[in-house]
Amino acid sequence: MKKLNFTITLLLYIANIAAQEDLKKNAIFHAELMAKYYNLKDFQKYVDYLEPGQYGNNVENKENYSKMWQSIMESDTSSLKITKLVEFKISNKQQQALFQISFHIDGYIFGTSSIEGQNWFFTQALSNALNFETVLSMVPTLDTSFAKLVDSKYGKRINYEIEKSIAPFNYTDINGNILNSELLKGKLIVLNFWSPSCGPCILEMPELNNMIERMKGKDIVFIAPAAYTTKDMLINSFLIKHPFKYQIVIIDGDDYNVVSFPTHIIIDQNHIVIERLSGYSSESVKMLEKKINQILK
Q: What residue ranges define each of the domains in the chain, with the CATH number in brackets?
């Protein structure tokens, strides 16, 4: 009887392995088909394969998203290739897969499907230097164990969450001034995460400078953590053309859970995050200033 039970268990195990291999083959088939549509510049079929979270799970947004990809594909001569299935698992009632790709630069895509594996959806191409938090914002059902394969800093980045205390900081700005969070208690702190390669960041600088002028005499510290740049580049080149009145500090952008520039963060006198504003519009600085004035009342 024991031998029979062992045989049945072994057969079931072999059958499960075979079924898993079939699921993997199906995932690879759909990933390669998605890549084929990109290479054929069939933007509509390509977008049909993309994770709905990338256009906000909104049909109207999908139409605009498709037009964007049509524009991109018209001028893109590169080829998207699936090079390897890195990881496959079943989690959160889904088949989930991580693929290595060859594209403009080597990178990854993630894919998810129902348990039946009939309809697969994929993220757009992601670089090797990715932030798994960003991926989760598009595909929240992904198993977080994928993070160890693609993002060594997952869970270790500095966060600025609304109504949460900030992590202590001790910056030295590009002019040698010390900015220590403990010494700044009692003051309102306004952060502007930016990069010199960010067009919208540059666009809003004159408005931010004007806001600072209007805020003179108030107990506020304006700090601009700058990513993907150097002190010499800013002082000797960038700031000559684009004066910026914030106190600028150089950071490693990958140390922070800030996924888009510009991102403005308002921290109250007790070091609690009050507001977080990402992106740029004609109303961005007005909204920022209005919120600051509300806190100061």
A: 2-150 (3.10.450), 170-296 (3.40.30.10)
Nearest to 205 by CA among 276, 261, 275: 261
- Give the residue among 136, 88, 80, 144 at the shortest CA–CA distance from 113: 88
Taking Cα atoms as reference points, which of 78, 128, 137 lies closest to residue 98? 128
Q: Of 270, 260, 259, 233, which is closest to residue 248 (Cα–Cα)?
A: 233
Each residue of 2-47: pLDDT tens digit? 555 655 555 454 546 667 899 999 999 999 999 999 999 999 999 9
Counted residue by residue, the chain has a size of: 297
Any residues with CB less than 8 A from the CB of 242 and at least 6 apart, and which? Answer: 202, 205
pTM of the prediction? 0.71
* Residue 131 identity: N
The residues with which 111 forms a beta bridge, in sequence order, are 97, 122
DSSP result, 179-206: EETTTTTTSEEEEEEB-TT-HHHHHHHH
Convert the pLDDT of each residue in 160-195 to its tens digit.
999 999 999 999 999 999 999 999 999 999 999 999
